[in-house]
Amino acid sequence: MIEVTSAQLYGWLAAFLWPFFRILALIGTAPLFGESTIPRRAKIALSAMIAMVVSPTIAQVPVVPVYSYGGLAIILNEVGIGLATGFVMRLVFATVQQAGEIIGLQMGLSFASFFDRAAGGQTMVLSRFLNIIAVLLFLSLDGHLLMLGALVDSFNGLPIGTPLSADGALAVARAGGMVFASGLLLALPMIAALLTLNLAMGILNRASPQLSIFAVGFPVTLSGGLLVLMLVMPQMGTYMQHMIEAGLEAVTTVLGQFSR
Predict the structure, then answer these.
(1) Closest CA to 78 of 193, 70, 220
(2) Is the dihedral of CA 106, 109, 115, 117 positive or negative?
(3) Which stretches within the chain are classed as H helix?
(4) Tens-of-pLDDT digits for all 260 residues of the chain?
(5) Residue 61 and residue 18: Cα distance in Å, rounded?
(6) Cβ(205)–Cβ(211) below 8 Å
(7) Contacts of 218 (CB under 8 A, 6+ apart)
(8) 67: closest CA among 17, 138, 137, 127?
(9) DSSP letter string over 9-24?
(10) Whose CA, among 76, 197, 206, 217, lies 20 to 30 Å from 106?
(11) Phi-psi label, residue 225: left if phi above 0, alpha if psi -120 to 50, beta otherwise
(12) CB neighbours (10 Å) of residue 199?
């Protein structure tokens, strides 16, 4: 007859819950996994399945009751690691969305928006289109698997219950600068082309005042923007790939900085 004591049961429960909270925080915030269109039960079930696979491979598990103040501190610690990892990776897609917003404003498509449940508000059509392309690239590059692999490997470099270093928070803040710099660089070809087009229409209006620039400006800007977008789209895919790879490297950097 197999007997299970309460101490063994609590030990098994703790060995499952510590990685579960870190993985659940990542699943809840990471791109693709953390979309609001995915049911919460599915996120919890996926996190539980991954935790069941990962927990036997963890060598160091703190002997702290889950229902104690020390257990609460460890839970908050694990949730912070998962949130930071998912947030850094989500910055890549925020960069793409920002570039779509800038391009849409330059093309005169600011009114072409719809309610995006994932964003929780109005989103430009062009921004959503570029975000879909980024998600497809993320899947084709196995970015979701690499992100989960980096988190699973972090249980060795960043054991459960390890006090987090402030350098990790600084690394997350530095990664936030990628949203503005990379987003502007992604939209820069479109901005330059549309600026040149607007300057040409301004010179044309000065040369021929009888030409109503307000009547022809919008269709010309929209048509020219779509043409330039069609030409630069292949290069955008390459740049998005570099951004995704940089995001995965930033995830590894943040996890490494937390362990200092």
Answers:
(1) 70
(2) negative
(3) 6-29, 40-54, 69-107, 125-140, 143-157, 166-207, 213-258
(4) 556 566 666 777 777 888 888 899 989 888 888 887 788 888 889 888 988 888 888 777 777 777 777 778 888 888 888 888 888 888 888 888 888 888 887 777 766 666 666 666 667 778 888 888 888 888 888 888 888 888 888 888 888 877 777 787 888 888 877 777 787 888 888 888 888 887 887 777 777 766 666 666 677 777 877 888 888 888 888 888 888 888 888 888 888 887 76
(5) 8
(6) yes
(7) 108
(8) 17
(9) HHHHHHHHHHHHHHHH
(10) 206
(11) alpha
(12) 10
Name the residue with tokens 């698997």: 145
229 residue type, one letter: L
- Helix or strand run (H / E) with residue 65: none
Residue whose structure tokens are 């917003």 = 101
Tokens of 25: 């925080």
Q: Which tokens sit at 16?
A: 């499952």
